[in-house]
Amino acid sequence: MQDYHSLSQTEREALRRDLQAQYDAIAANNLKLDMSRGKPGADQLALSSAMLDSALLENPKAENGFDCRNYGLMEGVPETRALLGRLMDLPPEQVIASGNSSLTLMFDYIAQCVLFGAGGIPWAKQEKISFLCPVPGYDRHFTILQHFGIPMIPIPMREEGPDMALITQYVRDETVKGMICVPKYSNPEGKTFSEAVVRQIAALKPAAKDFRVIWDNAYCVHDLESETVPLLNIFEAASEHGTEDHFVEVTSFSKITFPGAGIAGIGASPANIAAISARMNAQTISADKLNHLRHARYFASSDAIRAHMQKHAAILRPKFRTVLKRFEQDLSDGNFAQWTNPKGGYFISLNVPNGCAKRTVELCKNAG
Fold first, then answer.
1. pTM greater than 0.90
2. Strand locations in 107-218 (E)
């Protein structure tokens, strides 16, 4: 494909006609494809069907003898806290197992800080606050902050992670209260923070004593290739600087088992876990412990998690490769577009020329 700008008017008209004919042929198929972002397919959901075996009710007791059909264990079934701890590389006592949604946990934690503070004056009572947001980023993160009226400061994403020079500069302002990010296989570019960037984030000395980073580790085990992309444990890095209280990590099984029916967890320092637990005691009695138990028994070891995720990868890998192959085939010449080539997660990000994104989405919609 030649550079469009180098074509004559006659060549441009011929190219337009050819592309229109190709598009019309696609549209004529009357496709109705569900391309919802990050939504597992039916074949992926089927991977977890065995979890729903009714044998669970034959022995509904946790390892500590607690009957999971009843009230109690607000912080979650012990073996489920251990399971989530394996995902986040944290000891069980630093993890709370909750319902199905990490997004709910993030919303709730921000609400707690707004109403009650993060070890200081409630954010709602402070004259001015703001949050750092790596961009492009997860739109639902931005929606949470917008909902609470928290101004957002965009931080450009680099190949290694967010622009640390900018972050270092901004955290000198005590009105900057934190950052919200996806550190591994980020949404939507599929980038992973390098070890150097994680260490820099852990070493930050913000002016705000109530500074918090929401570490949304949604894709911690979602590798597509056999060669995995490592992410340094933020709490391990923070322990070298005494900054563990700055971080709150969330993850979930939404793209491991069933979106809307998985389990989610929040991990933090002992001090933060104690504060979160105290607030949750006023909020709830317990989550769905039968679901906790179901997940803990199905994923009884790290090997079981890895084996399950390899099945997901086997389904997703050829889809990623097909998309990348077509991009390379159709868009590699002419400087029409750039795209990411992630090694895991759920997203490939396609960047089209300025002013073309809306029209591209419109054409996709019209083609089904």
1. yes
2. 130-135, 152-158, 161-162, 176-181, 212-216
